[in-house]
Amino acid sequence: MRAYRGIRRSGILSSMDSSAPAALVMRAPAKINLTLDVLGKRPDGYHALRSVMQALDWHDTLQLEPVSDLLFDCDVPALAGDANLVPRAARLLQEETGCARGARLTLRKGIPVEAGLGGGSSDAAASLLGLNRLWDLGLPPTRLAELGARLGSDVPFFLYAPTALVSGRGEVVEALTPPPAAHVVLHKPAIGISTARVFRSLQPGDYGDGLGTERLVAALRAGAPPEEWPLSNGLQEAAAALYPEVAAALRLLRRAGAPHALMTGSGSTVYALFARESDARSVYDRLRADGHGAVLTRTATAGPLSA
Ligand code: C5P
Q1: pTM exceeds 0.85 for this model
Q2: Has 69 been annotated as catalytic?
Q3: What single-letter DSSP state applies at residue 256?
Q4: What is the pLDDT of residue 81?
């Protein structure tokens, strides 16, 4: 095993402390945006959003073990440094609570980066939730969400997943009743997308009124099947203009038989939803047979706080 790139701290409790809980393994799920309305630019430079976010049964894994130092490693070497949101969440918790305990944090990535799937934000939320337990901090969800928002706009959602209405810059989260599991086919073109670059390229004509999100919430409440959910993404046109690969990926998914195709977040991943697994599988098989990368999964129906 590679040496841990660690953050060494002093004044640590002994890892032999008999009250230290056993190791924890957290699942950090991916998300898709079922809607994403950009309402306008805020004075702080961020954009005001309304979005329904939905977690998936596809996840990274974060293992947390009680040791005396704070140590972090990741199976993707480019993500294994101290800038990763996992050790940053741990340091933030230590600073805010004065907790001097340590942990060995080992991240196994399954979710691609710069893909609009929220993987890094989800990892950060798993770090906050897991360390809150491992270190017996007893912080309430609202406090964890406040700390999470400092790490990234999408982090609080993952504390309330699987289904939520988000607003503000993404950090104001209202949990929704999760719909029955839908089958999801995802395809990520071979590019990563900078979220900041897509937001920067928005023109006032790209701004919406939030009605797309309201319509989707109404469809979920009415129990509509996934093929009838009014999906929308106010970042899709801007992302497709900057990255032609996104427009090509949307066409590819439709040509493989999907009745609709939508980009998640700021891209680059596109997805389609299905009530029946056989319909999802036939689109997935077609993509794979043509040599394209694809993932077949389901929407999650339970979240970290409801488990
Ligand atoms: O909050 P986070 O660090 O994930 O955001 C990444 C970037 O995306 C921000 O620096 C900002 O440029 C852009 N952004 C935005 N409005 C939001 C969320 C993100 O303009 N609501």
Answers
A1: yes
A2: no
A3: T
A4: 95
- 37, 73, 123, 154: the active-site residue: 154
Task: Using the mean position of ligand 1's atoms as its centre, give its distance from the Cα of residue 86 in Å.
Answer: 18
Residue type, 165: L
Q: How far apart are CA 95 and CA 154, in angstroms?
A: 21
What is the tens place of the pLDDT at every residue in 112-133?
A: 999 999 999 999 999 999 999 9
Do strands 232-233 and 24-41 pair parallel, antiparallel, or not at all (unpaired)? parallel
Predicted pLDDT at 11: 23
SS3 275: coil
Q: Which residue, chain included where needed, has tokens 């982090």?
A: 155
Interatomic CA distance for residues 101 and 137, integer angstroms: 11
Residue 84 has pLDDT above 90, yes or no: yes
Q: Cis ω on the peptide bond leading into residue 162 (within 30° of 0)?
A: yes
Strands (E), 66-134: 70-74, 103-108
Task: Tokens for 248, please give them.
Answer: 């090509």
217-229 per-position pLDDT tens digit: 999 999 999 999 9
CA–centroid distance, 152 to ligand 1, in Å, is: 8
Q: Where are the alpha helices (DSSP H) in 119-243?
A: 119-134, 141-151, 155-160, 195-200, 211-221, 236-242
CA of 195 to the centre of ligand 1 (A): 7
Mutation probe of ligand 1 site: the residue of 42, 46, 154, 197 with most atoms within 8 A of C-beta: 46
Residue-level pLDDT at 265: 98
